[in-house]
Amino acid sequence: MSNPRRIDSIDIFRGITISLMIIVNNPGSWGSVYSPFLHAKWHGCTLTDLVFPFFLFLVGASTRFAFVRWHYYASKQFYQHIFWRSFSIFMVGILLNAFPFIRQDWDWTTFRIMGVLQRIAIAYGISSLLIIWYDFKTLVKIICSLLLFYWAALFFGGSGDPYSLETNFSRNFDIFIFGEKHLYQGFGLSFDPEGIFSTIPSIATVLIGYLMGGMLHTTKNYNDCTKRMAVFGFTLVIIGYIWGFIFPINKPLWSSSYVLFSGGIAALILALLTYLIDIKNFKKPFWFFKIFGTNSIFLFLLSGLWTKTILSIQLNLDGKMVNGYHYLFKTIFLPLAGSFNGSLLFALAHLIGFWLILLWMYKKEIRIKL
Length: 370
Known about the structure:
By secondary structure, this protein is mostly helical. The protein is 64% helix and 2% strand.
């Protein structure tokens, strides 16, 4: 097998995305968060709403280089690799949902089945098969077909407002497959933003990333490649934005307009980073993020386990029992910087802490692949 070539701009983009994920997922208090670090309530797109599609975009971009080892040939070993990698990522997501395992109040009738890692596993697995079977032109047609199919399914399959939280087809489909109690309940009713049906357009997000990775992989002129990526990204942003007036840009639904809008922004950022890092060789200012670009799925798992662990710990605060997460914020960060700044400082402290762990792993050349 050939060893895949690593592209600094992709690694650093992944590191920036992971850094933003840590800040977004770990505020000191959810009641004291600056608006860019919150998801849009339903329709719309904030900085936070770009984290997940950026990660899937980068999964696709990295796949272009990773598949060099298979010489883009669908061998038996290739299928085994894709199956076991997808399966392991999916099962790690299941285990993360189940953590902590030693609990007295387990109710498996309300166990959530889907999640972020589960979506990554499915989107990666299906995208990998499409990538190994079809050429670039066919993949573009597949992207268009997926997005148009999803739009039609929601438009004709929903009731009332087809893009509302209560009556969208994606929710009804997931309820039919899993039952209401096995879906995410954070919206005040059963609806899973990482559900099965809305995973269909997320496959297109991965494929868009693959196309951008293909541009980088095959180019002989980085300047020309950067320009083409920028034009492609700008075009996607405009199309996605205009489409959003008909099919709203919506992260929980992973709407087709959202796929193009977020994918276009990701392409523009990758073009900029390629220009700065791979053309101008400005690597040192981005070294912090390069560390985060390694062991990214492991870090997602580690951060999730850490948060769930300190949430399960009970400590005494002024005669009242609170979880460890709340205790840390109230006793250290709130007195130090106030509510909003203290909440942000809490997240930044997590960012530095996780970075130090990854720095140690980087120096020891420890890479945990799922």
